[in-house]
Amino acid sequence: MEIINEIKQTVESHPIVLFMKGTPQFPMCGFSQRTAHALKSVGAEFHSVNVLERPDIRANLPRFSNWPTFPQLFINGELIGGCDITLELFEKGDLAQMVRDAQSA
């Protein structure tokens, strides 16, 4: 399936990818806003995909990742999770280390 290959290519070609509603500058939901903010707070440089502008990705990403909701954070090609997991990692200090590791890899 072509769109699954595009998603896979995106995840593999960027160390940190956030599939979100809106953009980091203009998030269109609170969960996406909080996730992007946590990433920015730890100095992450990340690629974002606005699933509202890409209904094909929005429809197929849950099949690719086996995760039903947005946002979805991938680090080094691996699904980390959504907003709750990202914020939990942020609060424990683990997100900063994961970002440092991904950006230095």
UniProtKB/TrEMBL annotation:
Gene label: grxD
UniProt keyword annotation of DNA-binding present: no
Keywords, sorted A to Z: 2Fe-2S, Iron, Iron-sulfur, Metal-binding, Redox-active center
Residues involved in [2Fe-2S] cluster binding: C29
Full protein name: Glutaredoxin
Top-rank taxon, per record: Bacteria
SUPFAM superfamilies tied to this protein: Thioredoxin-like (SSF52833)
Species name: Ahniella affigens
Protein family per UniProt: Belongs to the glutaredoxin family. Monothiol subfamily.
A Gene Ontology molecular function term of the record: 2 iron, 2 sulfur cluster binding
Chain sites annotated for binding glutathione: K21, R58, F70, C83, D84
NCBIfam families reported in the protein's UniProt record: Grx4 family monothiol glutaredoxin
PROSITE patterns: GLUTAREDOXIN_2
Segments forming domain Glutaredoxin: 16-80
UniProt-listed InterPro entries: Glutaredoxin, GRX_PICOT-like, Monothiol_GRX, Monothiol_GRX-rel, Thioredoxin-like_sf
